[in-house]
Structure formats: structure tokens, C-alpha cells
């Protein structure tokens, strides 16, 4: 089974207008040379944008915490779990 097919099994309840992850300072992302978040996120939530910065779309977030760790030195990501009842539901098996 391909990873994309596995990911498709997950279900999400998106908390509209209340993203659980936030980029604190967009200018910092524009100046960041590695933009590691755009590579490391398994759900592809981070992408580079036309302004040379980073765009974050949290809808498909797997709540793995990788971006929080990878950006730890800069501390430019504000990260919380979604509030109760929202976020991802994994299908196991
Ligand atoms: Fe991507 Fe994981 Fe960060 Fe969610 S927690 S945005 S899946 S790296």
C-alpha cells in the first residue's frame, strides 16, 4: 500500500479559522535559508510562496510534531494540539 493511500484513510475534523499551528513571524521565514519545514512535514503542510516566504495550511496535519522540533532553534512556530474533538482521527490496521 502506498503512503498516499494510507494517508487517505485518515479522517479530519478541521477547526475552521482556529489553526493549531501558527507561523509567528513571516519575515523570519522569508529570511530562513533552509526552510526545512517545507521538506520535513510528512503531510506537506508547508510550502514556499511567491514572496519567498513559507505558507502553512494545517488542514492535513498529522500532529506528529516534526515541524515544532525542526524549527526549535528559531522558535518561529507556535504549536498546540487541536482543541478537543478536532484534528486527525487515525485509522489503524
Ligand atoms: Fe506537518 Fe507534523 Fe507539523 Fe503537522 S505536526 S504540520 S504533520 S510536521
UniProtKB/TrEMBL annotation:
Q: Which interval of the chain is the signal sequence?
A: none
The yes or no answer to whether the keyword Electron transport is present is yes
Q: Which residues form the 4Fe-4S ferredoxin-type domain?
A: 19-51, 52-82
Pfam annotation, one family: Fer4_ETF_QO
Q: What keywords were assigned to this record?
A: Electron transport, Iron, Iron-sulfur, Metal-binding, Nitrogen fixation, Transport
Q: Give this protein's Gene Ontology molecular function annotations.
A: iron ion binding; iron-sulfur cluster binding
Query: Could you name the domain of life of the organism this protein comes from?
Result: Bacteria
The similarity comment for this entry is: To ferredoxins from P.putida and C.tartarivorum, ferredoxin I from A.vinelandii, ferredoxin II from D.desulfuricans.
Function, as annotated: Could be a 3Fe-4S cluster-containing protein.
What is this protein's record name?
Answer: Ferredoxin-like protein
Give the species this sequence originates from: Azospirillum doebereinerae
Tell me the classification of the organism that encodes this protein: Bacteria, Pseudomonadati, Pseudomonadota, Alphaproteobacteria, Rhodospirillales
Amino acid at each position: 500500500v502506498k503512503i498516499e493511500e494510507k494517508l487517505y484513510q485518515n479522517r479530519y475534523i478541521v477547526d475552521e479559522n482556529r489553526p493549531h499551528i501558527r507561523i509567528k513571524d513571516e519575515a523570519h521565514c522569508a529570511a530562513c535559508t533552509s526552510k526545512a519545514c517545507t521538506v520535513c512535514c510528512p503531510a506537506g503542510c508547508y510550502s514556499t510562496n511567491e514572496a519567498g516566504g513559507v505558507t502553512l495550511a494545517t488542514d492535513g496535519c498529522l500532529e506528529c510534531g516534526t515541524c515544532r522540533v525542526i524549527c526549535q532553534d528559531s522558535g518561529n512556530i507556535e504549536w498546540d494540539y487541536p482543541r478537543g474533538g478536532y484534528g486527525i482521527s487515525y485509522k489503524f490496521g
